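User: Structure tokens for this complex, please. No commentary.
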Amino acid sequence: MTFPGLFNYWVAIALMMIGFYVVIAQENLVKKVVGLNIFQVSVFVFYISISKVKGGSAPILSDGIELYANPLPHVLILTAIVVGVATMALALALVVRIQDAYGTVEEDEIREREESS
Amino acid sequence: MAVTAVALAWLRNLFAVVMLSGIFTLTAAVVYVVMDAVDVAFTEAAVGAGIATVLMLGSLVLTTAEEKVQPRRAIAPLAMVVLTGAILVYGTLDMPLYGDPSAPAHGHVAPRYIRDSGREVGPPNIVTSVLASYRGYDTLGEVFVIFTAAAGVIVLMGRGRRFRGRAKRDAKDS
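Assistant:
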């Protein structure tokens, strides 16, 4: 099965748009964090697909292999994954804090409570 | 993978959502292996699917496990998303094809890393040499970010516990 050469970008865009939709359309804050996570993974897929070289192997030096995938995006994404989890932990801590303060994690209910108080 | 993501958007039970997002990240890890990024796949499977899922479950325990039913499906966000996606797809039409060895991303410093890192740094894994040696400052910055995030989490959660104590006292008084 062969795909057109731009298929990898389209997959990344589709994932990104799903994540984007979850972030802007859902009211639940935990769901929003999950949506951000999907968005993030789409960017990772985009970078990793850029680093792929046709006929190349994983960037580990060994005899008899001349063509390697580009190691630079791999390094950037390694960093980005770990940073992403750290920021997600911060976001979830904020959500827990909001639950403490308002008793809910639904955005519209929070807004109602803000206006009525 | 896209199917899992769509299911994620539709499901209401947040526990199922968290489990599905674990599956989603594992699928992403498989995709990375297919695209020759073994180190990234390791990290994604361990950190993304493992730690992130545990964190989410922990926060579900502290909040609610069920999402409220939304009265209507908003059409404006959907239109917005489709529009943005169409513009992005239009933007990809100029991009280099998948796996093209002459793409601009493969120029500049990347060939030098591949050629010289074995001699200059040592380990056979090029990703390791770039991460720890050529781009050591990046990794240092990453450590700072993680430290800041951890400090923020500790501050927030510590306050939260105190706040809950106060809320209970207020409830008793009234």
